[in-house]
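pls ignore typos typing on phone
GLG + seq
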Amino acid sequence: MNIDKEEFQRQYLDKVAKLHGKPLEETSDGERYQALSSLIRDYIGQRWLLSRRRQRQGKQVYYLSIEFLLGRLTDMYLINLGLRDTVAAAFFDLGVDLAAILESEEDPGLGNGGLGRLAACYLDSMAAESLPGHGCGLRYRYGFFEQDFVNGRQIEVPDDWLKTGFIYEFRRSDEAVEIRFGGTVTPELNGKLRYRHENYESVLAVPYDVPVVGHLNDTVNTLRLWSAEPHRTDFVCSATNRNDCLKTIEYKNDVEAITSVLYPDDSTRDGRVLRLKQHYFLTSASLQAILADLARRDIPLTRLSDHVAVHINDTHPALAVPELMRLLIDEHGMGWDEAWSLTVATISYTNHTIMPEALETWPVDLFQALLPRIFVIVNEINERFCRELWQRYPGDWDHIRAMAVIADGTIRMAHLAIAGSHSVNGVAQLHTRILKERVMSDFHQFYPDKFNNKTNGVTHRRFLIKANPQLAALLGETVGEQWVQYPCDLLGLLPHAADPAFQDKLAAIRRWHKSKLAAQILDATGVRIDPDSIFDTHVKRIHGYKRQTLNAFHIMHLYNRLKADPGMDLTPRTFIFGGKAAPAYRLAKLTIRFINALADKINRDKTINDKIKVVFLENYNVSLLEKLLPATDVSEQIPTASREACGTGNMKFIMNGSVIIGTLDGGNIEIRNAVGEDNIITFGLTADEVLNIYERGGYNPWDIYCGDERVKTVLDQLVNGFLPGGPDEYRPIFDSFLHHGDHFLVLKDFAAYVDAQKELERRYRDRRHWLSMSVRNIAHSGKFSGDRTFTEYAVDIWRLRPEAPVRCYCSADED
Ligand code: GLG
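k done
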């Protein structure tokens, strides 16, 4: 956008006056933020309108996702509009601190973790690539909970992110649609078979649109977030209509509950009815709007799949399959076969995890009661699918039962998604291979052409340009500004990897961020950390498979060594943790308490000369990650191999020059292939080794406990009063390893991890060598750009004719 500093200042001051009726000097940071965001909203509105007009003709992609973990938007809008430098300069002249203003923005946390953040990255990439791709999600009244620590324990506080309003949303009440729950359906044969749906609960889905601005182009796409609202219920309660009145209140509460909270866990099944309601609400509302838009564009329904691609992000929106069938058949009078081929041609599905608890299933009775017409359709899909299977595997009932959509009283959403879509993809080569060969091997045999891999990618714009502007500028000076459009231009850094002058500039930037982070940590936790120590960061959801305990056990071991030998030659290290535990996941919550207790013990111990420090930062979210990325030397990516489908934190850290210590899992493997074995530190069991152990029913952790003194010491310290806290407080962790089989193979990988940590320190001591590793990581990060991934989705899956020609990327190799 073209606007000079003086003009911007004029418009900004004008906005301040109109909004607040007082001079700039008297406004608070919050008020200044309001004025800035309101001005940005004005700028975007006009561009949005023009972009919509231009997009009317082309094929549109709709990315349906139950989560969009957006993070703060203002700075991203400024970057994408090309206004960031102008605005920074204008504020500097006005004596206003832009960074402080930007901190006033709420961080919209409408997602749990990787899956939701990936969805947000892809919106950014689609707009940057000028692809007409839009998000469809839910406008949760309360986002992902805020995490507080009280005595080292996690307390969940509701995230009231809408309390002061969300300036970037545009309510479109005229485009509200009706969603029906419950009731009865009766077949009627009147020439054609029809279903009469009665006595249902009717809910209004009201869209709130959030603009998604493309980077330095004129594309503005839409993220549509649906909010559940009751129909008008305005009657006066009186003594005579008390019952009606109570019913009305109940109805209103029921409806509002649908979009009131984001489930703080993407893998458990609590609140099942409400969860299923959310899924249907999202899919039905989105599909109704998509078909209405098609009608507005005068496109006949028979051409649906030429003009629309619907992508389902994991199985949460898999009801799109039967719902699209319902709309085509019931509302538009289409026959089954035609509706089915259009549905399959329109929908595509990404699987994000093989964790069994996340592969959704619904009990038939619950499903049928809530969605009676959809159930009839799913039943028919299942019958027809089983007939097809019978043709292929006549008489093989076990095989057919294993693949059926409905079996043993449950509806399997992944099976529905695979049968009802034309493309199924995993999110890293290893993950796709595991899907094809193990978890979904029956389906892969049956539909070999549906399966494909799309290795995840993330946006350099948020996680490098926004998070680390100094590094972004250095990269621009070194390889040319074009790297922003073509992240693979970062390969041009390779000749500088061993150049001391370049390395020193990179080191100075990292050092600056480390001191800034150290000051913030001191402020937030009271713990003083040394900016010259190794910053070793482990941030992500707290989960058994992500193995925060492995990291903690190594820290305990290091501490034990230091206690035994205080003079030990050790490069000072600061271990930084961050992450939330699902409120109902007791062991994960206890892990937080355990690490906080360990931190307390170590940080207070004066005898170890500050050689190690441990901090667990509260309320890990996108904004906190952006502060950690530029200050991190070592990134911990240590899941049990095969469990982390891809991971995306790994990509965000390498683009900032952190070096990964990690297992051979998901995206780590592809990062290793890109950066080369010498520029990443890998260790531990491979995925195949892990899967073989699981197939054998596990292993005996006592062998390791008894055979490795280091492991025994550390585990005993959980239960012998070594840590602050109650005597048996950490026993469940101890038991999970020794009495419940160490399911995530922490003890099994412990020795390899300790060795890998030693190797890491050895390499860090050679400063030049370490910096060259760091440069090589940045150089190869272009391959992990979401722009690359989305170009692949656009070409291979959605068969999209983009507005602009598809650009060429160094692509991640297909499996
Ligand atoms: C999942 C997986 C991650 C993956 C992410 C995005 O567990 O490994 O990187 O989706 O594909 N639930 C998740 O976060």
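The chain has three domains: 1-55+73-105, 56-72+107-453, 494-783. Residues 698 and 741 are 7 Å apart (CA to CA). more later
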